[in-house]
Amino acid sequence: MNREKLLAALRGIEVAGKSVKELYGEISSACMRELMQPVRRTQGKSAYYFSVEYLMGRMFYNNLLALGILDEAREIFAQKGLDLNVFEDVEDAALGNGGLGRLAACYLDSAASLGYPLDGYGIRYKYGLFRQRFKEGRQTEEPDDWQKWGDPWSVRRPNETRRVEFADMTVFAVPYDMPIYGKSLNILRLYQAEGSAEAEKLSEYLYPADDTEEGKLLRIRQEYFFSAAAVGERVERFVAQYGRDFAKFPSVNVFQLNDTHAVFAVAEFLRLLTSEYRLSFGRAVEIAKETFNYTNHTILPEALECWDEKLVEKILPEIAHILKRLQIYASAEWRERGCTAEERRAMSVLTGGRFCMANVAVYVSGHVNGVAEIHSRILKEKLFSAAYRLDPQKFLNVTNGVTHRRWLLLCNGELSGFYDARLGRGWRNDLSQIERIDCSDGKTLGAFSAVKAEKKRQLAAYIEKREGVKLLEDAIYIAQVKRLHEYKRQLMTAFAILRIYFDLKEGRLPDFTPTVFLFGAKAAGGYKRAKATIKYLNDIAALVNGDGAVNRKLQVVFVQNYDVSYAEKIVAGSDVSLQVSTAGFEASGTGNMKLMMNGAVTVGTMDGANIEIVEKAGRENNYIFGATEEEIASLEKGYDPVLFAEKDPRIKEVTDTLTDGTFPASAELEELYAATFERTYNRPDHYYVLYDLMPYVSALLAVNRDYKNGALFARKQLENATHSAFFSSDRAIASYAAKIWKI
Ligand code: 26W
């Protein structure tokens, strides 16, 4: 990449008379011409990331930053009368749901920045994650036509199209390459399904509903189509370069499975090696064991994919056959090694007529990792305990990380400048240097407070523009931004806000510091209870914001269509980060790390990476509350939320709002009432919302009190920010590279 040549090309772009869209295309294409030049690396070992989700976010600024020309480009176009911020309206490339999809994007960014050869394989969805709007407080979903601005950041490679065969259809997997630039140029290769109207359905939507047989078949086809194309390409490239001695394959290829969605890649690999290259099944399995590695991102049973054997057989008979052979082969190994029938059942690839994809992944992978210390422990002790006893050496932890290029350098230039002024620029590629900042120095604290105040002003301005709501000034900005899910307990925050609202109304909080609660969350289209929580929060916002007696002290804002770009503004402009999942359920969390990196204190439970955040930043600089994982385990039997509410009028006053007419009766209120007090698909109050509610309110009131001492609170915030280096994905990628990929 020739930087001067690129800058010259940008200087040559005429701005006058062109639309924003035309300019977006021209500038991006000029960058692409420079980016996609170098010959691809050929020798040496490379790692490959298999994920159905890549939540890349807006590529424009990130790529200019990666190219090291973002500031110059702003300058060049400012002189032509174009403010580069006009491209803020460009859609995010939202080819992901949330957590693991954004993690994949951060990992690709860090690997390229650090110079590790890591390419990604995935699916180029026609529609990314839906666009969310609120109509009378309810979520509506509109297709996300992310390509309406064109897609100048990827290159279609028709001559590398691969055929993928199903029993009843042939699909062409057409690759689109997206550059991931840093020290090395890595590639994110996303396959688009073509060949017929039926075939095109395979890359139309992310996670199509799988509650019908048709939906399940589509999910299986989706997962197989991109996995088979990717594995087929890797094997073909290997044979072309090294011949058929597959013993060498693991020395030049290592695969990382981002959850179970790409586990069909294992079966396809075995199929290719045995049927096309005539290896014995055992030999093929041994080579696979040196090639595949698996990251688990969730312990929720509904997320652990098990596919009905008959369904797989219907469209992929050979793959079903391979998986059955794997079950026999593995079972023989487990017998030889003395496993009990109970252990064999727990680890089995095929049980009760269903293929358990997580067990396929665990059996074939050389390394199995969780995504935070507590989560990796839970994998060893619970989810995969039999496999752990058999092969303890396989299991390890790699706590998640987030790229500080997007989540600090790009989204918080002011805090980056604050570090530059005190540390020079070395910290930008070695984040641990920020620990040198002296958080007790008054001037430093003053400068940090000024940065935080500026980011809050920018956030308030952005929300006013986007939502038409004017945030309270001189208030604490408290954010709960994440996917809407029962275990993340947005409902508990709703109840906590009502508790505070009633206390304010009844004059019990005379010197309450003005506070804004900010929410950002999308609920899966079919997730009724999550959508009910969105409606309830929006109703609470209307009640609170409309009540003149309190609305100078308390404000609730639920932003619409929370996405990566919105997250960049919110993580930089928030004082407090709410991370309140039921202990033992959040594998890690990554929003917790982004908010910490930008100087928010955490109000959280001892769950996921919160535990490690508190360890790094100091418990005294955060607000920990709620039942621990052990406590939850002991509660299982004797917890009755009905009694719990009856006994405590402060709780009852709040839960009564679900039925007492405070809000107009609705299906949503009934759903939330049932979730809290009745047996449904879960136990009543399955996630202990009422149990942790009052400790949660106390933690929020402690924040409210501490915030009055500006220097003290700024100190807590700065201690969090300057102890966040561990949570850079640079550290996580270095661990994967050293401990798993050996690259
Ligand atoms: C719809 C099927 C489905 C099921 C599970 C789709 C996606 C999943 C993922 C496993 C959910 C997910 O993204 N998990 C989150 O992964 C993050 C990255 O490791 C963690 O930080 C979050 O704690 C975890 O919930």
Characterise this structure:
The chain folds into 3 domains: 1-38 and 61-88; 39-57 and 92-400 and 734-741, 3-Layer(aba) Sandwich (Rossmann fold), CATH 3.40.50.2000; 446-627 and 691-720, Rossmann fold. The mean pLDDT is 96. The protein is globular, with a radius of gyration of 26 Å. Helix 20 (490-505) links the parallel strand 18 (476-481) and strand 19 (515-520). Strands 1, 4, 7, 8, 9, 10, 11, 12, 16 and 17 form a 10-stranded mixed β-sheet that branches. The protein has a 6-stranded parallel β-sheet with strand order 20-19-18-21-22-23, with helices on both faces. Strands 13-15-14 form a 3-stranded antiparallel β-sheet. The two termini are 24 Å apart. It is α/β, with parallel strands linked by helices. It has 31 helices and 23 strands. Helix 21 (528-545) crosses helix 28 (667-677). Residues 97-100, 103, 207, 259, 297-298, 303, 371, 400, 586-590, 608 line the site of ligand 26W. Ligand 26W binds at residues 97-100, 103, 207, 259, 297-298, 303, 371, 400, 586-590, 608.
The number of distinct helices, counting runs of at least 4 residues, comes to 31
Could you name the CATH class of the largest domain? Alpha Beta
Fill in the CATH topology of the largest domain: Rossmann fold
Assembly form of the protein: single chain
Q: Which percent range fits the helix content?
A: 40-55%
Give the averaged pLDDT, no decimals.
Answer: 96
Rounded to the nearest angstrom, the radius of gyration is 26 Å
The total of beta strands comes to 23
Instruction: Give the overall silhouette.
Output: globular
List the bound ligands.
ligand 26W
Q: What amount of the residues lies in strands?
A: 15-25%
